[in-house]
Amino acid sequence: MSNTFFPERPKIQPTIYAYELVDVPTHRGLLKVGCTGRDARERVREQLGTAALSYRIVLEESAMRNDGTVFTDRDVHRMLQINGIQRREREWFECSVADVKAAILAVRNGQLEAERRSLNF
């Protein structure tokens, strides 16, 4: 069988992740939404470096569609904004984990606007 019809899946495991800063009043209610091809915990540690900030990873989801194509955090950011979610800083959004899950599901399914749901039936 030829691979022209079915592209090989990438060897990396692209992941959309979200985390919150704990006990940081300026970031209360905000989630940082990012993407990595590595372990999300490792990536977040790199971002925060030696800042001595407490954080909690609240979401890790595959950034791969059923057909093997990949989407990025920019796609999820765009979907969050389409759905009225406020961007507060570069990748920080005033939203819930359910909002991010709904945006990921919409992007994965190719929808232009996410419904307010976080489960795929």
Question: How would you characterize this protein structure?
Answer:
- The protein has 121 residues and is an alpha+beta fold.
- It has three helices and five strands; from the N terminus they run ββαβαββα.
- The protein has helices at 40-48, 73-82, 97-109, and strands spanning 15-22, 30-36, 54-62, 86-89, 92-94.
- A hairpin with a 2-residue loop joins strand 4 (86-89) and strand 5 (92-94).
- The model has no long low-confidence stretch (mean pLDDT 87).
Strand-helix topology:
Blueprint (H helix, E strand, L loop, with lengths): L14 E8 L7 E7 L3 H9 L5 E9 L10 H10 L3 E4 L2 E3 L2 H13 L12
Antiparallel strand pairs: 1-2, 1-3, 2-5, 4-5
Helix pairs in contact: 2-3
- Global geometry: globular
Q: Describe the strand arrangement of the main beta sheet, using strand numbers.
A: 3-1-2-5-4
Our Rg estimate from Cα atoms comes to 15 Å
**Distance from first to last alpha carbon:** 31 Å
Structural class: alpha+beta
How many beta strands in the DSSP annotation? 5
Provide the β-strand percentage band: 25-35%
Describe the structure concisely.
The chain has 121 residues and is α+β, with helices and mostly antiparallel strands. Helices cover 26% and strands 26% of the residues.
List keywords for this structure.
121 residues; 26% strand; 26% helix; alpha+beta; 5-stranded antiparallel β-sheet
